[in-house]
Amino acid sequence: MTQTRANLLLLFAGLIWGLGFVAQSTAMDNIGPLTFIGLRFIVATAAVLPFALREKARATKPLSTSDYKAFAILGTMLFSGMVLQQTGLLTTSVTNAGFLTGLYVVLVPLLGVLLFSHWPHPVVWVSAVFSLTGIFLLSGGSLDGFRQGDWLMIAGAFFWALQGLFIARYALRIGRPITMACIQFSVVAIAGLIAAMIFEQIEWSAVQAAAPEILFTGIFSSGVAFTLQAIGTRYTSAPQAAIFLSSEALFAALFGAIILGERLPTIGLAGCALIFLSMMMVEIVPRLRFRKSAHTKTASAEHIN
To answer: Does Cell inner membrane count among this protein's keywords (predicted)?
Structure first.
């Protein structure tokens, strides 16, 4: 798969997350965040399992114990990010939630340098700042007073960034992205349901009321989008993946206009433009530099001949 196709997959994942953000928020009108997470990822596991089994049948070698441990670690990171984000939505505004979750765009390259001494292409830093600024403008260009939920969102962004980094490393080394996604989902489902039974009261009538949100986010926002993330990240860098996935905010605004009749102010349109520009920069600028370098080498070779 080419890097361009991988980035398009990540863009499509951002589209799905943007569409599912409302469902994720409204589900808690009926059930608690831990119950929602557990049930959502049971659906996600069931949706992806047949494809994971087919991937296993086609694999040339079995997974090792260390591979399963790596997938379980990713599941723990995903669970941590989901719990912090979902719980944070109870005590913060959607405006703050959208902006603060977008902090992972900057955290991914920063943690990549701190943990692995991996310095990305310079354009990634500029694009990350552009994307984060775009998310801020798309959120209205202002933040309400910080509350507990805001700090939970910041902590969640940290785990999203860690997950993005380690997905990139494991997906490239192991080469079983669908299996990786399926095991992640099962870890989150089990942890979510155990935590829900301890800290929340699960009522069947409430689950039925939230069934549309559970099914949509389980099949599409989790099953499809997170699997696309696992596949696409295998063929691109973690910082580029984070920037393309930040299109979630862009698509959330688009679907808000189409479905709910909402209209963006000028500052929101400027935010959309910045997010789109950041994605184009990380896709085009490195290629221009590579072509320039290749052209210089070719010219030098012709001069020597």
So the answer is: no
